[in-house]
Request: fold
Amino acid sequence: MSISSLAQSIQSGKVSALQHCTDSIRNLKERDSSYNCVTKVLETRALQTAKDLDARIARGDTVGPLAGVPFGVKDLFDLEGQVTTAGSVVLNNSPPATRDAEVVQRLCAAGAIPVASLNMDEFAYGFATENAHYGTTRNPHDPQRLAGGSSGGSAAAVAANLLPFTLGSDTNGSIRVPASLCGVWGLRPTQGLVPLAGVYPFACSLDVIGPFAQNVADIRSVSEVLIGQSLAYKGDVSALSVGILDGWFAQDLTSGVAAGMSAIQAACQHTQTITLPEVARARAASFVITAAEGGNLHLNRLKVEPMAYDPATRDRLMAGALLPSAAVIQAQRVRNWFREIMHEAFRKVDILVAPATVGPAPRLDQPTIMVGGKAVSARANLGLFTQPLSLAGMPVLSAPLSSRNDVDTPLPLGVQFIAAPGKEDTLLAFAEMLEQKGLLGFPVVTARN
Amino acid sequence: MNEQDLILSDLHVLARQIDLTIPADCMAGVAANTQLLRGYVDLICGMALPDTCIPAYEYRP
Reply:
């Protein structure tokens, strides 16, 4: 059932918000032990909110477009009365949040009900959701494989059909990588379009938050609330011109990803191949900015309690804090240069298409991917195709390829659709057209299958 | 002094500049990450940009 159908059923009284919320929480508790998506269940708050919503509906009050729809948030969104721990134990003694993050407030005003906070890499620094404090989130399509990160709990909860939608954050690909590996949809909106108030930062000049969902219609329903405007596309989708990114973005692809990219190209009427220059430098700039900003954010705590951090996170943050200013300033100059390159591309086409990851989720006992013929760390390199695009701040939709693309390993694979700033409506319409053609969409894991 | 000792010595100098003490148990990991970042720094600093290409402090996509 789509999010809008669920909300309509609750608004009309056919389904009780309280009953649905109770069932959702029971499902979370019963099934999450297989995946480790959840860090906290907000049972008392959720059930009270659902009860109040039913009372409002019974009185005839107007309720929002997400009435009664349960959702979860990555463990870095403020939730009133809860300590925001950002996947760490370092912040455990911080005071509880006095209000919800602004985007959570928007969703609640639309009737949605927060029911859980979700696992992540510590302080969002990683692509694996291997957390030394809260454990590893497992991929619902194969629990012996990574869910991806850093918003791994958010992606896996949707893929396991534990929640209809969730929120994550994306600095270098932390929405797009786990969405790809878990076979769900994830949107990184235009940088600056969605407020970050009440969201614990990572690298603040790159941070963006966005939703995960099971289909493009649900992504639209949630995004319209997050952004506060309609995302209905008024143009002719078949007339959109599409640029297939090659060069950097065509290397190291598994056969399933390559087949999916070819199928998308064949399904579009107006396509051309686009080669972006200096993508390796764009990725390097993203690495440097992230390390420097993250390192600086944590520097004072690293001075007094370094051993409280996950060792992998701590060592990366310390190295980032030591970066010279000349490198960071150069990275920000490269960023402006790359922005112009991206705008130049959007003078030629409406949509760019790129793979999201090189292939399917790596195994937990072999957390590597093949790049340039060498096995490299998945935790550091799964963002090979997402990091350069983060630098420019354009909206990017991560979409799951249809399961028919990889007959050898029927695991999820993802692609990225990129548009000019503020063109989320175009992205969603284009993806919806491909979803209707059967090229996109991956089944979720239910209790029965 | 071998290369590894030089790297560790450099790290101590850099850390002193920001009043950071790197615990002995963390040195190897910090050194490895610093080496990784140096590769990226070399890549971006090897790129010639016009003087009019300013840093993206007030970045708008």
